[in-house]
């Protein structure tokens, strides 16, 4: 077990914008001074990070386990990008007062041991476990802000879907975290639509790990509940790519729904999407295993995301409009500030495929991007063989 | 290419009862006397067999290709278990007059080259390709009737879902055909809800073959259309078991829907179902390949069957009734004479698992059977770990 320092911190990041800092610091530093960790009993410290829809649910899961597990400090700190609510109150104030994220997960108690903190640096400073759960476009800024501030033997886990595309190829978020902060990062992905887990309906997830099974087991302990079954898999890239690429498949499935093409067509498109996910993952990382795609992060996440996720929903509306309304417009109208990942991931995947000369091998992924940008009509989703880029 | 004799016959079997014979014989023998095959030009003869919902759609697909492919006789004969319609007309008469199966696929033209024949022996006698597509419980009787009547180099393909359970273990329908009739049999399975293919919505299927890729390619030619994409796979048992076992998963998915458990739970149950399908197939036939489960017959068929199939629909109603109404009663009420395969397959699978001492390894399959028989409540579907048989 590599985790030996006294504090774990769980970072649940706001899903609406880049991080800001300070103002609740005094309150939290007094709380952390009371922690068993500070008293030298070496409990892992789950301070906290992040507060979107999924982030809030993750905090709830972790908080319930932190209370039960003797090796964890009770308090789970949640970093919240501060927002002022319509009634003039600050979001962190309301979370700490009501124990609910009234904006992103209304009606669900997070657990009394979850403490919202608007100051990113303060939230991480005593942590030895960091959970990253933000829209992927904010991860660069967050890592920049945390660079050099995370010290000691700290472990991270990423719940972030997406990747950064650089000239030299795609860069997974877990790698960005490892590179920027100098720490190991696992990933947790799977068939988990936040609102359903929030009301404790049965679901599953997959933890992908790079080296230590022991670290993976610790994360499993921290997330696993009777209604949320977590399985560790020795394939961090495969698990992470599943979580990223499935959003592109969900966009395709949304088009099929919007055009009312029926279940056969939808199943075919989901299958072809899963096949392209698997093929691309193996091209990018030859260590990726076939068996990963049978895990919750693979086939189950494709299913749940294509049945009920927001990418599917907005893509359905896009296709219903005949491609005349833009994704930006629909996102603003339909998602109340939440972000759509599938469209930007489709663009990034397209850039990778184009850069590597692989467009013809991935007709479904290519076609999704071309429909999103208006170069092809939504109907092209089932004629993608005619539109090989 | 093993297929050299002059006639192919496509057997599409009625889905309502066991076969009866005769009475249209004179008409059909005159038709077959006009066939090019009889004139010695060695065209493969697609006479015909079967006429349920899926059988009628298969006849439509094949008929459109038989017209286009020079190596096939135009006529596709369809064996129909004779029924008298409410207006007093015979089903075969109406099919041959209107070119529609008014009972099992109303509103869809089958193709002018499809000829309904109520006489099983007559329908097969000049055929060199047989397509079996009936509820699996009728296959035993049909094979008995055809035993010794199928001569020459005849090839078969089975679209039948299900298996026969004998003391010595499960027996796949393709094996029953091979054993009883002494001919090779491929299988065609996949994500194909008949009514959606009937209206030419895009979908896929998988042909599983045992030995000859060339034979498989011939079947692909005969079924493939721009809206129905067929892929051959060298794994007849894997493909056939997918088509059989997915109906058990669909029953589980129906329970989840009936209990309104949400998409995460449904995706988890579908994934666990796919995992048990894969594990059981590999235990029964070690040659079964993982990759088969990524084909249309695997993941896509699980998806489409769990989204829209009749097994799912009846299981949903069963769960909504709290298990108080029987499957027999619901089947009679909801399916207009069509048969439910999932419940009997679940029983057969249970018998195999029980006989082999594997019940604990397949908690989902075991639980489905126990819910169907009233030994467990529908809610047990997500607590199956507590109910290991």
Automatic annotation (TrEMBL), chains A, B:
Residues 46-211 form the Glycerol-3-phosphate dehydrogenase NAD-dependent N-terminal domain. NAD(+) binds at residues 50-55, 81, 138, 194, 310, 339, 341. Residues 235-382 form the Glycerol-3-phosphate dehydrogenase NAD-dependent C-terminal domain. The active site is at 246 (proton acceptor). Keywords: NAD, Oxidoreductase. Substrate binds at residues 161, 310-311. It catalyses: sn-glycerol 3-phosphate + NAD(+) = dihydroxyacetone phosphate + NADH + H(+). InterPro entries: 6-PGluconate_DH-like_C_sf (IPR008927), 6PGD_dom2 (IPR013328), G3P_DH_NAD-dep (IPR006168), G3P_DH_NAD-dep_C (IPR006109), G3P_DH_NAD-dep_euk (IPR017751), G3P_DH_NAD-dep_N (IPR011128), NAD(P)-bd_dom_sf (IPR036291). It is an enzyme of class 1 (oxidoreductase). GO terms for biological process: carbohydrate metabolic process; glycerol-3-phosphate catabolic process. GO terms for molecular function: glycerol-3-phosphate dehydrogenase (NAD+) activity; NAD binding; protein homodimerization activity. Its EC number is 1.1.1.8. SUPFAM superfamilies: 6-phosphogluconate dehydrogenase C-terminal domain-like (SSF48179), NAD(P)-binding Rossmann-fold domains (SSF51735). One of its GO terms (cellular component) is cytosol. Gene3D superfamilies: N-(1-d-carboxylethyl)-l-norvaline Dehydrogenase, domain 2 (1.10.1040.10), NAD(P)-binding Rossmann-like Domain (3.40.50.720). Belongs to the NAD-dependent glycerol-3-phosphate dehydrogenase family. NCBIfam families: glycerol3P_DH. This is Glycerol-3-phosphate dehydrogenase [NAD(+)]. It comes from Brassica carinata.
